[in-house]
Write a structure and sequence with these properties.
Its main location: membrane. This protein is mostly helical and 207 residues long. It has one domain: Cytochrome c oxidase, subunit III, four-helix bundle (Four Helix Bundle (Hemerythrin (Met), subunit A), Up-down Bundle), CATH 1.20.120.80. The chain is 72% helix and 0% strand. It contains six helices and no strands. It starts with a helix and ends with a helix.
Length: 207
């Protein structure tokens, strides 16, 4: 028996290195990993929402008097900020669809617009914090308000960091219709951030 036949018999052949990973999902491993990460982040937000609603239930004036006196929410500013963030989801979608169609200019414009709107959201939130009239030391309500909205703001910052990296790579010509995970993965995360803000806005400012 020749050496080649003996290698083939023992399963070696010409393959070097570990065998290819067994894929149990139709999703790309990177996309699946991001979805699993988002699931863990959703549970983190769930813990904060649990604390928030607990504080609302035990509040002496709940549910008729919320937020408790003397606190007040800047609902109009938060509404405008919500519109900005929701719009950024559309520009993010535009960026991804553009590169899938080999439209590099559209991808670059979509990423830049998304970054600008995300930055505007964070700046507006910082201004809101400066003028809201209370801080984290003003009771359980104030602590949970800053905790929940601040947690989301931290996620927006992480999303902006990922989008900035994607934008730099986009302007360097790193993406193509066949290879665009560097845009798709941050886009999935950004959509999660947007959806989570809608939940935060509805729970904190509207309900």
């Amino acid at each position: 028996m020749t050496a080649h036949a003996e290698a083939a018999l023992h399963g070696h052949g010409d393959h070097h290195g570990p065998p290819a990973a067994n894929r149990s999902s139709r999703l790309e491993p990177t996309v699946l990993g991001m979805f699993l990460f988002i699931a863990s982040e959703a549970m983190l937000f769930g813990a904060f929402f649990t604390v928030y609603f607990f504080v609302r239930v035990v509040n002496p004036g709940a549910p008729e008097m919320w937020p408790p006196e003397p606190f007040a929410f800047p609902k109009f500013v938060a509404g405008v900020n919500t519109a900005v963030l929701v719009t950024s989801s559309f520009t993010m979608h535009w960026a991804l669809q553009s590169i899938k169609r080999n439209n590099r200019r559209g991808m670059q414009a979509g990423l830049v617009l998304t970054i600008l709107m995300g930055t505007a959201f964070l700046l507006t939130q910082a201004i809101e914090y400066a003028h809201v009239g209370f801080n984290t030391s003003d009771g359980a309500f104030a602590s949970v308000f800053f905790g929940l909205t601040g947690l989301h703001g931290a996620h927006v910052f992480v999303g902006l960091t990922l989008l900035t990296i994607a934008a730099v790579r986009a302007f360097r010509g790193h993406y193509s219709p066949a290879h665009h995970h560097g845009v798709e993965i941050p886009g999935i995360y950004w959509h999660f951030v947007d959806v989570m803000w809608l939940v935060v806005y509805a729970a904190v400012y509207l309900l």
